[in-house]
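Title: Prediction job returns without error message
Component: structure pipeline
Severity: low
Priority: P3
Assignee: unassigned

Description:
Job completed but the reporter wants confirmation the result is attached to the right record. Sequence as submitted:
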Amino acid sequence: MLVPVLLFLVGFALLIKGGDWFVDGSVGIARRFHLPELLIGATIVSIGTTLPEVMVSSQAALQGNAGISYGNAIGSIICNTSLIAAITITAKPGKVQPKSFALPTAFFFAAALTYSLIAWTYGRFERWMGLCYLAVFVLYMVISVLQMKKNPELAEESGEENEGGEAPEKERSFVMELLLLVVGAAAIALGARFLVDNGTLIAAALGVPDSVIGLTMVALGTSLPELITAITSLLKGHGSLSLGNIIGANLFNIILVSGMAISISPFAIPAEKTILGGVNSSLVIDLPVMLAVMSIMCLPALKKGELKRWQGILLLCIYAAFTVYQFVS
């Protein structure tokens, strides 16, 4: 049991560090070829910080492990919102710029409601559905770039150019940038493999369903880039930057992470955990919690342009209750 736990933690470390290297290398190469800063921030950096979730869910899908593949995406959204964003809101509530995250919020709720309706009515995801989500991802990226070109101030407000961390302070050689890109991608792939394989072993040893491991431990691990971004933003006094990044990451968890996993290996909604005499817990707990926490965070902010401390405290309580429920029920 000790070895799987250690390898599980090594997987976390590889995912986070590999993500840093990948973003640094790809941004350096993009700048070397004089790609616009706006385009770099809206595409390469944003996708780079979501790579841990993409690789973990894709690896799980290749192994036919629907529980971790599904749980990682939904769990990351819940973790990003009711833990990471909640910490930021509780520590430093304040005004935000609704314009900067109106687009990703609208896309998120459209994608999440569609995802939930498919789960509630059909009970499984087919490959064509995954391909549709990936098409939505491409559409969102195009609209985002066009919108930021039309309104450059939105790029600054949303913080997308800073999502993966600040630009390197010193120039690197092209060989070093290429090496960071390759080594970063390899570290992410290896970390995802360690996380999935050993997470499954730990779940089996503890008698915990794979979906629970995906919803909690794996989701928290793959959300560490967002946690680091939130803490950094908070320390620098940019609460709305953190909020915008988290909403974008949550959207990517539906249209990119889930879209990729479903396209690789279609799956049925995991039914390993039940409630109320046999009702699938994912349908009556996980999906409603995902929609509820995003509503609590986003809707007041969009309407009033500010975040209140009560929102953060409520979200933290929901996350604590959700985590306890997953392991004790």
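Comment from assignee: result matches the submitted record. Residues 174-206 form the longest helix (33 residues).
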